[in-house]
Write a sequence for this structure.
């Protein structure tokens, strides 16, 4: 199907949805579904209308230039305007092609962001804490809501592992390329000799799954309770409120000890389990398509080294797109992370456009 055929189909469906919502014959659930679809298609229709208006203007200018009665001064102005409009057409057409690319069904979902300290001992845990705070600040800047699902800290204030729920518009679409191994190069505060160490932390960004997205049979679960403990014996619970859930068919294990209530810990652990099972299904499908997608930006493989944060040189390098920015402090503060994410999204769009052209 050509781009124009797809565009015609979108415009037709958009008009159909508008008529259905105006009919008054829908129940609340149908209206919500149609309204969501209408909102998703609206940017495409608006861009198509912009292109149509521009082409109509061009036709008017062509007629003016072809008219023998048009004086030379008017022709000169019309020629300049025609060239300006012609220069705009490729950008609008490119925007339309991007808008018409198949959407990732999970893009509009909330996300669960997991961070685990990797190689490097205490320094890796301190770096994992830096990353966790970077994403917290980034979420705050975007007006997203965050909630800890699990947090295991070290005595030095580092993070062994953390799971964070992030809710808001388009969260997964913006964060999904953050999955992978993040590496840090710096002199640890615990190092007296002043030598640069390299350590790492792993980030996994999972689309948050609803119960309708993934069905879990309770007979497939083993649930263990244990007594929660904090760093250095802090925040120790006197009751067995911590929860560990094992999904027997896949071997996926999740745990939560963040709440004092066993019921709340279980609910949070199930939230993470649903997300991991949903991600597992998505990864399986992606693996089947991967042979045809050599140009994708990051495979989502948790073992892929994606970024290096070099403190002595104040630089951040994203290895997937060969991007180096000398603004490490501002990126870790969350404020400049958008620059990296925007370029990753653009690279992914370019790769997918190349596949369909």
């Amino acid at each position: 199907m050509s781009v124009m055929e797809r565009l015609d189909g979108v415009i037709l469906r958009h008009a159909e949805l508008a008529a259905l919502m105006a009919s008054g014959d829908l129940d609340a659930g149908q209206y919500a579904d149609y309204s969501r679809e209408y909102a998703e298609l609206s940017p495409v229709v608006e861009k198509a209308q912009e292109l149509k208006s521009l082409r109509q203007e061009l036709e008017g200018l062509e007629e003016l230039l072809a008219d023998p009665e048009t004086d030379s001064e008017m022709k000169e102005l019309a020629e300049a305007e025609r060239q300006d409009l012609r220069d705009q057409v490729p950008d609008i057409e490119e925007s339309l092609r991007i808008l018409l690319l198949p959407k990732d069904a999970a893009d509009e979902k909330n996300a669960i962001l997991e961070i685990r300290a990797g190689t490097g001992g205490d320094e890796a845990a301190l770096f994992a804490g830096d990353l966790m705070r970077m994403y917290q600040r980034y979420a705050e800047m975007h007006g997203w809501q965050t909630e800890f699902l699990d947090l295991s800290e070290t005595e030095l204030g580092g993070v062994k592992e953390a799971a964070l729920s992030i809710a808001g518009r388009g969260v997964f679409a913006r964060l999904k390329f953050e999955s992978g191994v993040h590496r840090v190069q710096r002199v640890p505060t615990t190092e007296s000799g002043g030598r640069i160490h390299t350590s790492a932390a792993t980030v996994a960004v999972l689309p948050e799954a609803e119960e309708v997205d993934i069905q879990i049979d309770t007979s497939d679960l083993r649930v263990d309770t244990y007594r929660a403990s904090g760093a250095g014996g802090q925040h120790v619970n006197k009751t067995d409120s911590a929860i560990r859930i094992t999904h027997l068919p896949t071997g996926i294990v999740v745990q939560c000890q963040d709440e004092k209530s066993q019921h709340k810990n279980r609910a949070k652990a199930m939230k993470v389990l649903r997300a991991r099972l949903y991600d597992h299904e998505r990864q399986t499908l992606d693996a089947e398509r991967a042979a045809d997608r050599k140009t994708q930006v990051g495979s989502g493989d948790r073992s892929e080294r994606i970024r290096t944060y070099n403190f002595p040189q104040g630089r951040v390098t994203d290895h997937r797109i060969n991007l180096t920015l000398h603004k490490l402090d501002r990126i870790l503060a969350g404020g400049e992370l958008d620059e990296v994410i925007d370029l990753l999204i653009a690279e992914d769009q370019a790769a997918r456009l190349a596949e369909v052209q």
